[in-house]
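Lab meeting, item 3. Inverse folding demo.
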């Protein structure tokens, strides 16, 4: 609602500015004051209804949809729906299809007084209109406060006060914007010239693409849907579909639901048919606003680019076309653009990204989310002590499962993002059906370890070949499962590597995800292929059966944790459905093991029970999302509006983006964020703790993650009280790191 009310007051400044340019060569001295152009006469002579009469001057018109009538004291009077005549239909460049009035109009508003004996009626009436001939200028919204005596004729009405946002249209729109626009009355925002508010750069990435970048100071934002790109001077060269990143969802009263960008946005654009072209001219039109301030007219920049030299252009205020400068020259003549918060993660080179991916995958073995599957893998590793060949086989098939899964999950995320949709690492756990399936998988693996069912045994002893194939499949499946359950965790170094992969071409992204998987599988590869390491493992024996049964319990605990996540997403009904499915699954596996080698009807019973399990997933899929739980403790729920309000007031803010399925998040909460030390630190520094829950799909939080180039949760950002950009913290927290950030120490 803050954003909506802001536009009631400010968006028409944009219209004013858009119409102002044809008027620059003409004087606006002849423009009437707003109350003369749209003269309002109230009539409260008839009890129970008030009439509002506007006399509209020649060459002026009033917007029907901009008339707003409110009671100054809603407790004293209740207003009915205003009755307005139909207007003339008109297509407005900025507002679309509207209705306008010329000449004279009258609105009728019924009302009911709380105190029937009252003789006073206080209303506020807001309206807005334009001058439709040169100079074509629209007035900002004007509000008149009416203090009327009920029953008195119109001439006897008590005084009317006017609260216009500007005395003349040119005060908020027109030539003022060509220099440094003044602040709007009623706001503290001082608007910058357009080229300072929206610093535009164009970078040539060879003959197959461009990178456009806008950098905005704090509180400025750019509209995605108001950007238009056109190629000139290069026949046969066309632009591909712009690859917009996820932005901030924004509801505009006039434009509807739209996407905007704060701080900085980078837009890759493909070039088609530019194999032989040397130069081209790019026309770029864009539009943006200052929060709680003015909106700018459409800005157009013409950029000449040399595709062979790989030039870059930084926009500067000028009246003629901008000419690209070489990168070095641009660096010398124009102040360098600060990177967006968190962009350092994505700015590593490919060699560094591969190294970080290998380290991140290796450290992932130590994360608690991978422990259950490592328990399962430990059994096969110990069993492989029977021969070096078996050890190598286990390691290779496990590694294959890890690599294929990492490549599939990683490229799926990259592909979804390339298609313009929001997707992040670990986001698959936002799907309740997948969580329910994993409950069943963990239960089935646990029952196997407990001896209820033996997936690896040969069926009816038909031969060692089938048993051998079953073993390889088991190793491969273990690798797949390791990746699936590892995705809720973000190990150190993983974020930088995945962020690089998200921005890289598909081939490079595939290589990074494969190296990440190689890091996860590396310990078992070493055991399988380095005999000296394998000899350190204990020898197989009868004790292994006890160990195998003991390791079933981490699987059961993982299933319980997943049920808890499901309860957060879809409530208790989902948990009940999945528990019914778990009982049916246990029965199916028990009967499957008991009926080996029996007739077909036994297998039919297993199939019937399996269908019962699947039916529970269907019901879970159709359950509505659970009501989000209130943020516990001293934390406040994240919202862009609340964050902007706190930052504007100079309050330091610590933002925690988390999810119930994120094990790293929960570990950080246990170690740091849910401690008395952290709460004392917040009080000592006057910092507000703001928490966003990404357990379920949430476009607002996804946009925040995108803004900070985060591959997923956890994400921690600290906003200092001096209003500077947010500082992104490590995904693995320590109290010292948080203390250093909040107290402003070097870190």
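The presenter then showed the designed sequence:
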């Amino acid at each position: 609602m803050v954003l909506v009310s802001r536009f009631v007051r400010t968006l028409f400044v944009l219209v004013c500015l858009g119409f102002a340019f044809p008027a620059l060569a003409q004087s606006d001295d002849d423009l009437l004051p707003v109350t003369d152009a749209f003269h309002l006469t109230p009539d409260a002579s008839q009890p129970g209804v008030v009439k509002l009469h506007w006399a509209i001057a020649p060459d002026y018109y009033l917007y029907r949809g901009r008339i707003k009538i409110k009671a100054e004291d809603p407790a004293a009077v209740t207003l009915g729906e205003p009755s307005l005549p139909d207007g003339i239909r008109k297509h407005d460049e900025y507002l679309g299809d509207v209705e306008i009035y010329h000449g004279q109009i009258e609105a009728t508003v019924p009302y009911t007084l709380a105190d029937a004996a009252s003789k006073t009626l206080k209303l506020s009436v807001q309206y807005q209109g334009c001058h439709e001939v040169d100079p074509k200028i629209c007035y900002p919204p004007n509000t008149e406060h009416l203090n009327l005596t009920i029953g008195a004729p119109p001439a006897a009405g008590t005084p009317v006060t006017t609260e216009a946002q500007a005395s003349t249209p040119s005060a908020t729109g027109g030539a003022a914007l060509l220099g440094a626009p003044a602040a709007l009355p009623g706001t503290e925002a001082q608007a910058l010239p357009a080229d300072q508010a929206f610093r535009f750069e164009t970078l040539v990435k060879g003959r197959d693409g461009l990178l456009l970048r806008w950098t905005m100071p704090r509180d400025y934002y750019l509209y995605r849907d108001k950007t238009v790109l056109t190629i000139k001077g290069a026949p046969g060269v066309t632009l591909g579909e712009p690859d917009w990143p996820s932005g901030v969802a924004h509801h505009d009263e006039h434009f509807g639901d739209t996407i905007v960008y704060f701080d900085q946005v980078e837009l890759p654009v493909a070039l088609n048919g530019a194999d032989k072209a040397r130069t081209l001219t790019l026309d770029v039109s864009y539009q943006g606003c200052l929060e709680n301030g003015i909106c700018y007219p459409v800005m157009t920049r013409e950029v000449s680019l040399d595709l062979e030299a790989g030039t870059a252009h930084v926009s500067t205020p000028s009246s003629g076309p901008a000419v690209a400068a070489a990168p070095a020259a641009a660096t010398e003549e124009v102040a360098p653009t600060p990177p967006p918060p968190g962009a350092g993660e994505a700015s590593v080179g490919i060699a560094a990204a591969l190294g970080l991916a290998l380290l991140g995958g290796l450290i992932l073995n130590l994360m608690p989310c991978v422990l259950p599957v490592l328990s399962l893998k430990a059994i096969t590793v110990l069993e492989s002590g029977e021969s070096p060949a078996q050890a190598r086989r286990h390691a290779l098939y496990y590694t294959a499962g890890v690599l294929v899964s990492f490549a599939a999950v990683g490229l799926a995320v990259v592909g979804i993002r390339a298609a313009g949709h929001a997707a992040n690492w670990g986001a698959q756990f936002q799907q309740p059906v997948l969580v329910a399936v994993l409950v069943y998988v963990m239960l089935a693996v646990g029952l196997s370890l407990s001896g209820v069912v033996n997936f690896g045994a040969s069926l009816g002893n038909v031969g060692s070949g089938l048993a051998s194939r079953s073993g390889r499949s088991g190793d491969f499946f273990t690798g797949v499962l390791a990746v699936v359950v590892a995705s809720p965790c973000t190990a150190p170094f993983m974020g930088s590597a995945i962020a690089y992969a998200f921005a890289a071409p598909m081939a490079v992204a595939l290589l990074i995800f494969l190296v990440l998987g190689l890091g996860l599988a590396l310990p078992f590869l070493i055991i399988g292929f380095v005999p000296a390491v394998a000899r350190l493992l204990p020898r197989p024996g009868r004790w292994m059966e006890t160990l195998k049964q003991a390791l079933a319990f981490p699987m059961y605990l993982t299933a319980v944790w997943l049920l808890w996540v499901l309860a957060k997403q879809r409530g208790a009904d989902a948990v009940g459905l999945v528990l019914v499915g778990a009982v049916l699954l246990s029965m199916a596996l028990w009967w499957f093991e008991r009926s080996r080698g029996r007739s077909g009807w036994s297998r039919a019973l297993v199939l019937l029970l399996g269908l019962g399990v699947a039916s529970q997933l269907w019901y879970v899929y159709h359950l509505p999302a659970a009501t989000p739980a209130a943020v516990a403790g001293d934390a406040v729920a994240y919202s862009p509006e609340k964050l902007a309000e706190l930052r504007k007031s100079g309050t330091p803010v610590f933002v925690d983006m988390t999810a119930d399925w994120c094990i790293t998040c929960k570990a950080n909460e246990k170690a740091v964020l849910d401690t008395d030390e952290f709460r004392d630190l917040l009080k000592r520094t006057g910092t507000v703790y703001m928490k966003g829950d990404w357990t379920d799909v949430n476009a607002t939080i996804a946009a925040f993650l995108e803004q900070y180039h985060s591959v997923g949760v956890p994400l921690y950002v600290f906003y200092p009280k001096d209003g500077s950009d947010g500082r992104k913290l490590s995904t693995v927290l320590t109290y010292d790191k948080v203390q250093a950030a909040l107290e402003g120490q070097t870190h």
